[in-house]
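Subject: for your reference before the review

Hello V.,

The reviewers asked for a structural picture of the protein, and I figured it would be easier to keep everything in one thread rather than splitting it across files. Below is the amino acid sequence we used in the manuscript, unchanged from the supplementary table.
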Amino acid sequence: MSASRAAALVIPGDMLDFYLSQGYYRMHQDLFTCRFLPLDGSLYTVHWLRLALADVVLGAEQRRLLRVNARFTLRSAPFRLTEEYEELYARYRASIDFDAPETVEAFTMAGHAHSVFPTEVLEVRDGERLIAVGIFDRGTRSLMGIMNFYDPAYRKYSLGKYLMLRKIELAREQGLAYYYPGYVVHQYPKFDYKLYPCPAATEVFDVASSSWLPFSWDTVAAQSADLLRDWPLPTDDPDEAD
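And here is what came back from the structure prediction:
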């Protein structure tokens, strides 16, 4: 399910907030949502997350990561696609073991000349060297994380997780209410890193009631069971298939 680009030049912040609050997310230059994800020949359920920023309390591991990476400089700016970003992303993409878009342009713009999203970027540099980039969209009360990528030579610094923490810090400094990191997938842990900042402040979207519930794996399991119960099972009977 998707909501295509509006005629407006930029999606208003309060409209972006609303769609995020209903379990939608950005893909390229559209807003979409989904409930299922086919992976490795199986069907998994998708569960959208957000963090209530007023409730975020960083643990010892998160504080340590911020201290370790305090040697790097951080800059926030409006997003502009650059060759420097594309070169860094190409090195990052060559180092990962999962599918990813070929370029930053393909991930964000997908061939469109104009972005309808209010997009910003966090740059992390070691001296003059660009080592990580975090791209996000900002609503009136919300910040939506879009993508993080980093120099593989700096893998030990966990720069993807670091950028999540710095986006949360930035959102709190600006008085925003929610940070949206994307989704987790029931019984498929590859996406669980999105819980890293603060599970206690994390909420999960409940499709049945269109509301947000405190995150727990028990809640996700119950939601998954409900979603799969309503999913039509394949049948060999052509009459039933009609």
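For the response letter, the relevant points are probably these. DSSP finds seven helices and twelve strands in the chain. The mean pLDDT is 93.

Happy to draft the paragraph if you're swamped.

O.
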